[in-house]
Amino acid sequence: MEYISTRGKVSGVGFIDAILMGLADDGGLLVPARLPQLSEATLRQWQELRYQELALEIFSLFIGDEIPRDELKQLVDDSYATFRDEDVTPVRGLRDGLDVLELFHGPTFAFKDVALQFLGNLYRYVAAKTGSTIHILGATSGDTGASAIEGVRGKEGIRICILHPHGKISQVQELQMTTIDDANVLNLAIDGTFDDGQRIIKELFADVDFKHRYHLRAINSINIARILAQTVYYFYAYLQLAKRGQAGPVSFSVPTGNFGDIFAGYLAKRMGLPVDRLLLATNENNILARFVSEGAYQPGEFRGTHSPSMDIQVASNFERYLFYLYGEDAASVAALMEQFKQQGSLSIPADKLAAVQADFSAHAVGNQECLDTIARYHRETGYLLDPHTACGVAAADRIATASPAVALATAHPAKFDESIRLVGIEQAYPPQIADLFERPTHVELSPATADAIADRLKDFFEQKR
User: Fold this and answer.
1) Which domain holds residue 290?
2) How many independent structural domains does the chain possess?
3) pTM of this prediction?
4) Catalytic residues
5) Which of 327, 323, 308 is nearest to 370 (CA)?
6) Where in this chain does the record put each Tryptophan synthase beta chain-like PALP domain (predicted)?
7) Is 392 within a domain?
8) Residue 62 forms part of a structural domain
């Protein structure tokens, strides 16, 4: 399998080089040169597979012979041995016609663990095989940071720096990062928003000299391995419903701010998974919902919400979707992204908007609607939703589909107790989270500029172990 850039000036890249490159050297994002096409017969054969076995089959399609199958199997087994549920991502019934896909059974209680446990082990594997140094740089709106740090902390040959917006994530999310005291971990709280952090990351990766001098590697969803790992649970959810006798396509309701999680579902559909509708759930930072409804992609005013991991105005995976929307025409994508850079917005013509709306429906969930959804489902079913999952469930309630729906449960509610308490619900923290409040923290404040971050990274990456 080879990988190419959405902007057309990078091609013929193998899987390992693709994960090491992160952001393509031409400023675009890497995608597979071709997507595998899966038949109904293959899906039937996969129906009895455990999650780890399914992941091995899907990863093999995108990795080829770059990693021997027995070694890839070990990477997969090691990655998902850290999950608390034997199904890894179990499917639970919520109400008639709606299930939840629980993605929060990994070590940091968030869906990011599904991809980042694998990517962390993959980086360790590459570092050991090649003797190379891996310096990971990422930004988080809350969950990516903890999952990324947990995936690589203490691993030989790897250092990691994570940026997070100071005061704009939940207390548990912050503690999961900043209570880590491993020497290979640096936490920087920036004086700005997640969008500022994401901008800084892209600027530093776009500085090719800096990127190569310090062996920068990406952990954000600009890294294609993140997206590929997330396709697995879409297949797994569909196959679990099929085992229960559910015939026909399934719709997925996905809380998303950075377009990565729902884009993984879109790729799964293009690969042949019987997906009816992809329901895009945002919060009051509704740039993606407005794009689906109107065809205009333009950031609005930043809003702090009860679902802080989705408090994002510029979605880094949006460019990958444009690549497929425009028939894999890299020149058109490059022109659109240049327009967005120069004008701060872009729009698509009516025929393209019709294509968007053939795959996606969208709903922007207000703060009160989010809380009301948490309260109502807890009262009526006893199931406690975290505020991000509540956005997905609210969208599934609002948008009628001809097929059963699965809402992605992206985090454990204990990570967002500030929101849960607002509806008068008391919950017990899992022991792993309760313990965080007793630990000292390790974090530095930084201006939200690429120059300030670059200067601090030079010191961190050059220090002797």
Assistant:
1) 91-109+225-422
2) 1
3) 0.92
4) 112
5) 308
6) 102-398
7) yes
8) no
